[in-house]
Amino acid sequence: MRLIVVGTGGMAKNHVEHFARIPGVEIVGAVDTDATRLTAFCDTFDIKKRFLSLDEALAWGEFDAVTNVTPDKAHHPTTLPLLAAGKHVLCEKPLAENHEKALEMTEAAERAGVVNMVNLTYRNVAQLQKAREMVISGEIGTVKHVEASYLQSWLVSRAWGDWRSESKWLWRLSTGHGSNGVLGDIGIHILDFAAYGAATDIDHVFARLKTFAKAPGERIGEYTLDANDSFSMSVDFANGALGVVHASRWATGHLNELKLRIYGERGGLEVTHSPNGSELRGCLGDDTETATWKVIEVPPVPTNYERFADAVMTGSSQDPSFRHAANLQRVLDLAMVTETERRELKV
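Structure (tokenized):
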């Protein structure tokens, strides 16, 4: 598989490092409109072909697949011409800024008949995959209640950098710079974590969003700090279960933690993922009588990068697909509407 990288910002490094370890994958080029960034990136990873526009790369055309690591608002305009050219695409999340654009990308990919995946990175968590298997196999019975959270603390900690002075964080706080806040940035991750782990889709949503004061006049330089910092969401799942989902960048003491609790009529499961590792615990069988939780050991699973490469090389399809990501984007879009209208909406 001959692969090019579109967008050479921070996340591109992770993509290249993962793909470089996969047998049969050759990284043959990179695209970025910033010449300095492009040169530094390609020099670091010894990438020969360098393009300052996507049109240049498409005119060259000697590649099979693309990993699209451009900023959120660039996913739509960069992915569509790639699909039209018949290229397989792994796109960073979210697929697009809104459901309308995400659906257009989905339908274009399906018409083109190419492999299309979205890098919802927490699908790489083996414990989440195992929890889903256990739910599907009926080990905890019918799921009744789901609780999911995504907690970050970079608004109260400098562990990842200083949001007050660094553009890579400030843009995430500004709607004018393409951010939909914590809902758009990590909301898609925790919704996927919850729905995938519980093996059921979300079909009703009601959300509350909150933007907290952070600076004088709520502005730092060119950035107006108006994007939401926290959200809480009540959801109904297609299987009848009730769910509570929330996320915040103000979660002191939690650098980057996802947690999922799935409660069924015969048992419960808890998945925790943080920089320190991942864990799956279960309260099953006779242990439900004593509320005893035990760690469940789980073997590694293929990463999204490995599954994308396998899909391209074998001609198979893999999840999470563009359509799945578009469906999640619809939930996010409706969540914004429910905040404004203060009412539940059907997905």
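The chain has a mean pLDDT of 96. The chain has two domains: 2-120, 122-301+319-346.
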